[in-house]
Amino acid sequence: MPAVTVADLTVLPRVPAPAPTAVQRPVRALSSAPGGLEGEGFPVKRAFAGVDLKDLDPFIHMDEMGAVEYAPGEPKGTPWHPHRGFETVTYIIDGIFDHQDSFGGGGTITNGDTQWMTAGSGILHIEAPPEQLVVSGGLFHGFQLWVNLPRVDKLRAPHYQDLRSSEVGLLTSADGGTLLRVIAGEVGGITGPGSTHTPMAMVHATVAPGGELVLPWRKDFNALVYVMSGDGFVGPDQTPIGPGQLAVLGKGDALRVSSARTQQERYAAGLDLLVLGGLPIREPVAWAGPFVMNNRAELVQAFEDYQAGRLGQPVPHGDVGGTA
Q1: CATH: 2.60.120.10, 3.40.190.10, 2.40.50.140, 3.30.470.20. Which one for 16-307?
Q2: 50-70 per-position pLDDT tens digit
């Protein structure tokens, strides 16, 4: 069960109905995320695997981390590693993660919190479960999304945003059967707390069994729907979609998702999904490991700068005195 919930959805503002002339976005492609291991060995689903970067633009990569119920001693994170040229968005639905970077940013995020890190010109960071979670074990579930930066912003100074669950914008669908948590962007008149360099929107929605969500969506944004759990349908033709599947939507003014009336017992809350969209950057993408640049020469420079220590140095855990 996601950490950010509301007992009575009727008290929330409702998504305005799309204009009568609005065009619902069709499903252009449907893919299933393969599983993998990240960092020191925690399980992930590669949500964007096999999808053309042109369909994802301005996004690059997304992992669903878990959901996994760790036994004592099992929780894992990542070692110190570099980034340059994009932003990482780490959204924790359940569990705890400590974040720290070489510029002194970071902190603990848990149960609906988001950490937004602009790597920009270059940064080192680490993501790890706190010691108490390693000792106790417990539920862990979240996402990490990579948002590309346009050429003009790729070498901007690194920046960190610590977004608390209490800051997330909340609204409900027209039928009152969906809880929408707006993390970034403006959706249905509600603005999320994330400050983005690339115009985008990020929404975590839970659609109750039998419920429907018709969401106005910026015409100049792309649109992606990723299902965490539950069975449902997406698009004007109501294409079936289920856990670990990503729908790439075509052009239009609105998107439509609905939750199957009859859900398996473990999906009692209904259809749980992420809705993402942004303004395409439409620039060349040169991507290698932890760096996302515009051409190979910039990638080579990024690796050289990292090896020379110019992206910063690891700092002791809890020390906010890191330097570039």
Answers
A1: 2.60.120.10
A2: 999 999 999 999 999 988 888
